[in-house]
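Consider the tokenized backbone below.
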């Protein structure tokens, strides 16, 4: 042991109290005790490290790091100093450095429970699952009476794919527990997790037998029934699976997964079994007439006259009731040309008959419909024409609907959407604002209006509009960032990019990127919480979801915008290029044009600087009025705009897509644009190959192939 590490008995007792203060989060009290030791022993490394830890938790980060590093210098072989240094790095989300510190700490005390536990949490966060198995095994050996350690080891084996070992580990833990007591949620979840391990191992018979065995001890009865039905279907026990799924449907006929499960279990989900599937769905439809899930599947599997009869009933019922979402329900069938023609013919017939007779069809015994039926039929037709990009017909139809009833918000929203699809963003924005004013308390239409304003380039107006529904005490944009509102940051980034205000655009795109980093970091606390509370199935699902987080469409959209801006910065002409076409000019004319361009550029720069100074002054005033409010130190995104490595920065957005969204064309077209500018021919070629594998007829493929051949002189 380091001689300087030993303390007299009095100070040693004080140091133990310091450790206790940290565990109880009594940082100020612990800091005073640390100072009392350091008065007599100013070179005691472990006390210096603990003082640094307290300072770090009291928001004195720089001072805290200084004390911890000082403690390490005085006692480089102390596991406490290394552990504390690791805790500081972990708090800063610097997981790689924290892992190195924990490794050093274990080198000097390999049996410390606290270090092993923290190291296991870090390995889970970093997805070092092979090393996690070793750490969890050591924890179980050190303290075999701790249930979370056993559960953590089983999960570690599951995450590396060793399901049999995971089952054995969990079984050993269950054997040590008292299973004869009252049924509890924790016990139920533990047993259902055990069953999930058997399922993932592929042994469905063992999973089914285990499920039957644990039934009396399970509180999640619906989950138990779902698993039983699934296992029966997997094992080919058709009659039992049929009965199991019908029981689930009787309990919840609105869950489409149960109906699909029934069709799969009975082998009727194929294209060649549509007649049999149609018969079963018709029976279920008669039993549960209000189930939308059964109705949708009945339309999916129906063909010919059967489809016409069913869709006729659905359309008439929805138009009579005034269901605005009926078009969204129907357009999924537009991929089938025959079904599309049937729906179109029916709706056109409705419109004509309702206009003339007030009925859905022209027969004499038809019941007269309410006037709103004609309104919603026109509404449907407008969306139908817009879907086929028949803009003139769509606008004409929606105008008829507005003249019929000029106070319905959905009509104006659809008109705005039609104009947007026609590329008339300014008009679409104005129409959407009209819709917003019809219902000032509707947050959805408010958000839609703000989105359309951004598309039209009215950024300040969009922020003001969306601010009607944000907190009053802070700026609307800051509140939206605090709420991790992705759509607004992405749309605003695209709006700034269109105006070539690239700094602000990149700032918005990086804000979205930070949302995903924060979501990933926020899972850290769940590594202990879920083991303690036994929410094991949800925990494993969360880990797997986090691994695919950046494949989300919102991230893809933000990444695409950011890469396009970085490419624009990389392609930006040098300062000496004034952008003037000097062809056919005399020397005097060239000089005059250059001077004019230089003056215009200088004036634009001065205006920009004045605007920037005014905004910074406004921020300073706000900060003076309320010092607690966060102040944006880089409102114009200068940090991102002044990058010297735009292509490398663009790759930061593309690499997650290459890992998690390899089936998207955009992933490889963006990668190609970066690699061809970096002269990385092999990587650019790989992007071309991936694009061809996904869709060789995509417009970008031929263009990029020609660029690749020309640039590389192949």
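A designed sequence for it:
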């Amino acid at each position: 042991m380091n001689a300087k590490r030993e303390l007299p008995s009095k100070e040693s007792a004080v140091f133990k109290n310091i450790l206790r203060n940290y565990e109880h989060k009594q940082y100020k009290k612990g800091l005073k005790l640390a100072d009392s030791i350091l008065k007599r022993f100013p070179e005691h490394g472990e006390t210096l490290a603990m003082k640094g830890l307290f300072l770090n938790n009291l928001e004195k980060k720089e001072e805290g790091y200084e004390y911890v590093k000082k403690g390490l210098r005085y006692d480089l072989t102390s596991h406490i100093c290394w552990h504390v240094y690791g805790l500081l790095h972990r708090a800063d989300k610097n997981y790689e450095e924290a892992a190195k510190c924990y490794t050093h700490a274990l080198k000097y005390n390999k049996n410390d429970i606290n270090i092993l536990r923290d190291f296991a949490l870090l390995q889970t966060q970093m997805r070092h699952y092979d090393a996690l198995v070793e750490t969890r095994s050591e924890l179980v050996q050190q303290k075999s009476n701790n249930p979370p350690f056993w559960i953590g080891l089983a999960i570690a084996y599951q995450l590396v794919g060793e399901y049999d070992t995971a089952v054995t580990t969990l079984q050993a833990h269950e054997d040590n527990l008292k299973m004869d007591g009252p049924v509890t949620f924790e016990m139920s979840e533990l047993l259902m997790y055990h069953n999930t391990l058997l399922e993932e191992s592929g042994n469905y018979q063992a999973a089914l037998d285990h499920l039957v065995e644990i039934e009396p001890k399970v509180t999640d009865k619906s989950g138990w029934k779902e698993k039983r039905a699934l296992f029966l279907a997997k094992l080919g026990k058709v009659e039992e699976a049929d009965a199991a799924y019908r029981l689930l449907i009787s309990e919840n006929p609105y869950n489409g997964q149960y109906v699909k499960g029934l069709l799969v279990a009975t082998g009727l989900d194929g294209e060649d079994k549509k007649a049999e599937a149609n018969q079963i769905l018709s029976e279920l439809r008669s039993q549960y007439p209000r189930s939308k899930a059964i109705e949708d599947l009945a339309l999916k599997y129906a063909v010919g006259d059967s489809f016409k009869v069913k869709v006729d009933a659905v359309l008439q019922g929805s138009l009579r009731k005034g269901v605005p979402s009926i078009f969204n329900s129907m357009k999924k069938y537009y991929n089938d040309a025959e079904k599309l023609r049937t729906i179109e013919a029916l709706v056109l017939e409705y419109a004509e008959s309702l206009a003339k007779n007030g009925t859905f069809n022209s027969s004499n015994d038809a019941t007269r419909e309410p006037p709103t039926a004609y309104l919603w039929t026109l509404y449907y037709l407008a969306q139908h024409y817009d879907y086929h990009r028949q803009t003139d017909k769509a606008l004409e139809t929606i105008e008829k609907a507005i003249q019929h009833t000029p106070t319905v918000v959905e009509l104006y929203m659809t008109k705005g959407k039609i104009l947007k699809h026609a590329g008339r963003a300014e008009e679409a924005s104005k129409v959407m604002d009209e819709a917003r004013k019809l219902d000032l308390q509707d947050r959805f239409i408010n958000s839609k209006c703000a989105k359309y304003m951004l598309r039209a380039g009215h950024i300040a107006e969009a922020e003001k509009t969306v601010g009607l529904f944000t907190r009053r005490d802070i700026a609307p944009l800051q509140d939206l960032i605090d709420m991790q509102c992705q759509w607004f940051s992405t749309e605003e980034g695209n709006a700034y990019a269109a105006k070539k205000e690239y700094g602000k655009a990149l700032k918005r795109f990086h804000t979205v990127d930070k949302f995903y980093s924060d979501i990933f970091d926020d899972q850290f606390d769940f590594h202990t919480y879920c083991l303690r509370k036994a929410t094991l199935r949800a925990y494993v699902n969360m880990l797997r979801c986090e691994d695919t987080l950046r494949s989300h469409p919102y991230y893809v959209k933000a990444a695409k915008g950011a890469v396009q801006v970085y490419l624009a910065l990389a392609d930006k002409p040098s300062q000496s290029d004034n952008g003037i076409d000097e062809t056919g000019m005399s020397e005097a004319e060239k000089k005059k044009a250059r001077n004019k361009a230089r003056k215009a550029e200088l004036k634009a720069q001065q205006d920009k600087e004045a605007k920037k100074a005014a905004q910074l002054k406004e921020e300073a005033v706000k900060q003076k009025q309320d010092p607690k409010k966060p102040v944006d130190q880089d409102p114009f995104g200068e940090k991102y705009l002044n990058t010297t490595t735009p292509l490398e920065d663009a790759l930061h957005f593309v690499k997650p897509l290459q890992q998690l969204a390899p089936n998207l064309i955009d992933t490889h077209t963006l990668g190609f644009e970066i690699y061809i500018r970096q002269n990385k021919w092999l990587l650019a070629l790989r992007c071309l190959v991936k694009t061809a594998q996904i869709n060789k007829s995509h417009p970008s493929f031929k263009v990029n192939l020609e660029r690749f051949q020309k640039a590389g002189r192949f």
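The first helix runs from residue 9 to 23.
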